[in-house]
Amino acid sequence: MSMLCEICGKGPHAGRSIARRGMAKKKGGVGKNITGVTKRRFLPNLQNVKMLVNGATRRARVCTSCIRSGKVVR
Predict the structure, then answer these.
(1) Against a cut of 0.85, is the pTM above it?
(2) Three-state SS string across the chain, please?
(3) CA-CA distance, 6 to 61, in Å (whole number)?
(4) What is the Cα Rg of the chain in Å?
């Protein structure tokens, strides 16, 4: 099942997770060093919701920002 909001089309975004080691300079160390960069995904907060569409109820996967803004009639 795809991670897309059925109303606004919000989907996953790509990002990176940066692993660091060492002590910060302002704490008395020699500085933080990046030891690895791995890919990660930021997924939208989707909820299964019963909503009214053309007078009939149907289930849809909708992001919470659409639910809060009132774009979904439950």
Answers:
(1) no
(2) CCCCCCCCCCCCEEEEEEEEECCCHHHCCCCCEEEEEEEEEECCCEEEEEEEECCEEEEEEEEHHHHHHCCCCC
(3) 6
(4) 20
